[in-house]
Write a structure and sequence with these properties.
about 325 residues, alpha/beta, four-stranded parallel beta sheet, about 35% helix, binds phosphoric acid mono(formamide)ester
């Protein structure tokens, strides 16, 4: 693997999931692979799971890890040809090349603005690192995608499904803040590539990018969508059409125990309790969010392993 920008960088999904499950059984089996190799993790935004699980994954492979909260460093300029006489101090062209002197792999988290759709969709931060760094780049959640989360989700479904082809439903839920589309986008793409019966449900006005959802069945009636579901993945996102705006805070869309029945509950976390989902669901034995969070390590580890193996070629 040369980079991990989107789930399209996985050449054989089923094999990769199985390899991640094997890594989970023997996490230190490849601890020599990353010796004298360094992962630099760059955070433009906050993180709990991604930061800790990716660091753990790298250390399991014997790598050194350096973490930089970019907002504590120089203010970066991304515009080509910019006259830098205002607030930016260092151009990404220089910064990415410099970081590449210290890193064998660079991982980047950079959320969208949710105000400028075209700019967000250009993935200007992530693509700038891809273009100007001289080492592989890993996406730790960008403006439009969260491929480490999606791989985690696929691993978790493979481990915990009780049917060969489970019915998986992605349900929108209310949230007080406008949130990105990245988790939902990557989950939709992952489910389209998986052996599942998949549907999406959300209120009108919350349609995701149609170039991603394509012909995935869509229900505006949540209870109709949830009928006979085996796995319910709940996530809020802001409007894509009315870009970045909150169109509804309809509390009727919160996931409750009554709605989910015996289905398993998934969420990428962090989650707003009793807004997105009620306590009774999160605290039930059908909630698999902690197993999901645990699998973040093995998703990151299989990705880093494949990148390290490619460095050696
Ligand atoms: N799910 C996820 O990416 O969590 P963090 O934002 O805490 O990294």
């Amino acid at each position: 693997m040369k980079k991990y920008i989107s789930i399209n960088d996985i050449s054989n999904l089923a094999d990769t999931i199985q390899q991640a499950i094997q890594l989970k059984k023997a996490p230190f089996a490849f601890e020599k692979l990353g010796k004298h190799k360094t992962l630099v993790m760059l955070f433009f935004n906050a993180s709990l799971r991604t930061r800790l699980s990716t660091e753990k994954a790298a250390r399991n492979l014997g790598m050194e890890v350096m973490v930089l909260n970019v907002n504590d460093a120089w203010n970066l300029e991304f515009e080509d040809g910019a006259v830098m006489n205002l607030n930016t101090t260092e151009h990404i062209k220089d910064a990415a090349q410099v970081i590449s002197q210290y890193a064998d792999v660079i991982a980047v988290r950079a959320f969208p603005s949710l105000t400028d759709k075209m700019k967000d969709e250009s993935e200007w931060v992530l693509k700038s690192f891809v273009n100007h760094a001289s080492v592989p780049i890993v996406n730790m959640e960008s403006a439009t995608a969260h491929p480490l989360q999606a791989l985690t989700d696929a691993i978790t479904i493979e481990e915990l499904k009780i049917k060969k082809k489970p019915k998986v439903v992605l349900s929108w839920a209310p949230h007080p803040k406008a949130l990105p589309h990245a988790v939902a986008n990557s989950f939709v793409r992952m489910m389209q590539s998986s052996e599942v019966d998949f549907a999406i449900t959300h209120p009108k006005g919350y349609e995701l990018d149609p170039s991603i959802t394509k012909n995935t069945p869509l229900f505006y009636d949540q209870s109709e969508a949830l009928k006979d579901a085996d796995i319910v993945y709940v996530k809020n996102w802001s409007s894509y059409t009315n870009y970045g705006k909150i169109e509804s805070k309809d509390t009727n869309w919160m996931l409750t125990q009554e709605k989910i029945g015996q289905a398993k509950f998934m969420h990428c976390l962090p989650v707003r309790r009793n807004v997105v989902v009620e306590d009774a669901v999160l605290d039930s034995e059908n909630s698999i969010v902690i197993s999901q969070a645990n699998n973040r390590t093995y998703a990151a580890q299989i990705v880093l392993k494949k990148i390290l193996e490619n460095l050696e070629v």
